[in-house]
Amino acid sequence: MAEMDMGLAPRGNKNKKKKKRKKQSFWDSIVSGLIPCKGDSTNEIVRKIVFLVALVVLVVAVVLIGAHYLQYGLLNARTGGNGGEFDATDKFIVDLKNKTPTPEQIQQLPQGTINSEYASLYAENNDFIGWLSVPGTNINYPVMQTENNDDYLHTNFQKEYAFEGTLFADYRGKITAEEMPQNTVIYGHNMLYKFQFSSLTNYLRDIDFVRLAPVVDFNTLYQNNKYKIISVFLTNIFEEDGEVFDYTGATYFKNQAEFFDFVLECEDRSIYDTGVDVEYGDEFLTMSTCNEDTYMDLRLVVVARKVRPNEAPEVDTERIVRKSSIKYFDGYYAEYGQLWKGRTWDISLVKGMEEYIRENGLEDDPEDYEE
């Protein structure tokens, strides 16, 4: 009678009772409102799928942002609370570097070591090979070297997991008391908040910075070295984006031709003509990091030539100019519409290069590209 009194029983079927609908729990309501279910219309299914995709994107974005801030917080804590432009080296490492080594630590250094002030660093981690610093930046870090290029990708100096990793030299170019590779390649992450190798982007974006810091220092256990910048370039690492320049594979040059080929690629691709001369037998320092300014997976590369014995380390910065024609790759040309218009840097700066280009048919005159 209660149903009739409330007007809920359908007329004409007094004996048939209405089947009660089972009440959904709060969780079931949420699930059925978000997850496509049996009986949903096509529009409802599409709506739910779109919402779920948007939700996943939002969650991923929040996680990535949180990871960046966490990364910054951890790095900031380790660098003494100062994540600024000029102080990003782990405080623990700085303390080790500045610590007066004990006689025992000095005795443990490899034979041929001249920089005994690094003894505390080497005692803490025998993978330590040298110290890299770039004026005007916070690049002031230890450099490691092992038997591969994986150990320090995400490992700090203390051999603990750290996303930012540690600067390391390519294992294929061994740094010893007897010799240096003809091209020492050092890798570092392009980290958010100006840690690790992120400051190398200053060379890419600002010619005034190139003039401010045309010389970098890389002191090993066995040598103190200065290097003059000769090239700053962007390059692809996948063939789908164009021809790949394997600058990391050039740690040693079998002959003069390989040397000239390497220098020619570096100079053609360089954003700047730095006015620094090069000759066969010179050694190089190549600093490599990621670049994510485009949709492509690129590398930002800075190449410097070692200062020769009895050569002044200064650079005539007035000769540093931006080139009017820069060699990139197919993916870059397609993205930005810029095309290689021939060689415009001063090839006379590389002793023997003019003859090499002529003898091998490598001429690339800008006049050939004029419309």
What does this structure look like?
The longest helix is centred in the first third of the chain and has 37 residues, at 42-78. This protein starts with a helix and ends in a 12-residue tail after the last helix. The strands form 2 sheets. The protein has an 8-stranded mixed β-sheet. It has a two-stranded antiparallel ribbon with strand order 7-10. The protein is 29% helix and 16% strand. By secondary structure, the protein is of the alpha+beta class. Mean pLDDT is 84; it is low at 1-14 and 72-86. It has helices at residues 2-5, 26-34, 42-78, 91-98, 103-107, 119-124, 201-205, 207-212, 256-269, 330-336, 353-359, and strands at 128-133, 140-144, 168-169, 183-187, 215-220, 224-236, 272-273, 284-291, 298-306, 321-322.
Question: What is the mean predicted local confidence, pLDDT?
Answer: 84
Helical fraction equals 25-40%
Radius of gyration, whole Å: 30 Å
By helix and strand content, what is the structural category?
alpha+beta
Overall 3D shape? flat
The protein's oligomeric status is single chain
Q: How many strands, which pairing sense, and closed or not: the largest β-sheet?
A: 8 strands, mixed
